[in-house]
Amino acid sequence: MQYINTPGLQGICPSNWHLPTDDEWKILEGTVDSQYPVGYPIWNNFSFRGFDAGINLKSSYGWYSTGNGTDLFGFTALPGGYRAYSVGFYHMEAHAYLWTSTEQSSGYSLYRNLKYSKDNVNCSFSNQNAGFSVRCLKD
After folding, report:
1. Model confidence over 55-77: pLDDT tens digits?
2. For residue 113, which of 6, 71, 79, 128 sits 20 to 30 Å off, Cα-Cα?
3. How far is residue 71's CA from residue 114's CA, in Å, rounded to a whole number?
4. For the segment 77-127, what is each residue's pLDDT rounded down to a tens digit?
């Protein structure tokens, strides 16, 4: 994020776009989930949460086995996996790992994870050296 850890900054995004914060991800999740609306306490939990936000955000193609989503809202999340600290790529075609701009603690930030075998969304945190994808949000 241009070596600054203030949530919501442009970071690597183009002008007039920014890396979404954890709160902005919660709004997205609550908007696309059919059971738990925006503001529902479940969105404050870690691990897989919600009911069907994940399947509604996943693309309708490209996921391992029968893991394709509905892409109900046009988000079209693709399973890019992640790059481990310097040893290679993992979970290609099975997972999408997406950074938030919210730092959990020094050197660790929150991310979202969509998995081929899950309909909901995982919220967790990782060392910032991990190579996850980003989705930029228009200002």
Report:
1. 999 999 999 999 999 999 999 99
2. 6
3. 13
4. 999 999 987 789 999 999 999 999 999 999 999 999 999 999 999 999 999
